[in-house]
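tool=predict chain=A
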Amino acid sequence: MESNQTQHLDLTQFAQKVDTIMQQIGTVVVGQQDAIYLILAAILADGHVLLEGVPGVAKTLLARLISRLIDARFSRLQFTPDLMPSDVLGTTVFNARTAEFDFHAGPVFTDILLVDEVNRAPAKTQAALFEVMEERQVTIDSVTHPMGRLYTVLATQNPVEQEGTYRLPEAQLDRFMIKVVMGYPTLEQEVEILQRHHADSAFTHLDQVKPVLSIDELLEMRTLLNKVVVDASLYRYIAQLVQNSRTSHTVALGASPRAAVAMLRIAVALALLQGRDYLTPDDVKTVAPAVLQHRIIPTAEAEMQGFTPTSIINRLLEQTEVGI
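tool=predict ok
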């Protein structure tokens, strides 16, 4: 019991820092609270994030801001149809002075990498991200270059403009722990945005934001993921949700075992962010849509009937009960 109490005290201190992070983000970004919590949970759970939203909803700004608040190195990469794998990973260049080949690292060598419009690059360039996303390393000319322990990819895609884009293959989509959809602000939030822009001083500028959490502190919190209490019924609940996604008559392709692991890890991370050392069914229900929506493909008949991945997931959550 003493160790659990000590752990709870540590989580309380961490939760206070999370509250400070959320307050700092609120001085720059209006709204998007759910998206922010999911992104922070994914970083804590050592997972990558696919951000989907129309232009102008602060996807890039949010990625930069979170990087600054956790004192992480940040790099941005704009995917375009003419982008080559070497533009992403880096290349070796012959050094005439030393008569040796020097490795020039690409933008992937950072702590948090923002890939803007990931679906605009051709398959060969998208594939360049496969190894680095899964293995946290890059192999060039038979030499392996490891990434840092925090390494996280935040990739954005525009759901509306599809001209000149390349559909992400299922194998790559499955490497994203979650997909976060950033929607339009509410009327009240948009009024606040206008008021802040008119006053200007009401907005905190990015260069004024100070780090709240260090990388070492975040990595230390990762070691507590496996210490969060998870009831046996919740293991079965997560497994049943994923199983049901494969057997539903509305689904052509269901979620993989990687999805079940991702759901557990990010649900546990969300519990930690809220200062708890135990998992609840509500944690699982909160993260399930973000974990499953980019992994589920409806059948053609289901799409004709108006089913979407989101509506299918909502039905799965309604039909799957938490065991005892």
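The two ends are 24 Å apart (CA to CA). Residues 1-7 have pLDDT under 50 and may be disordered.
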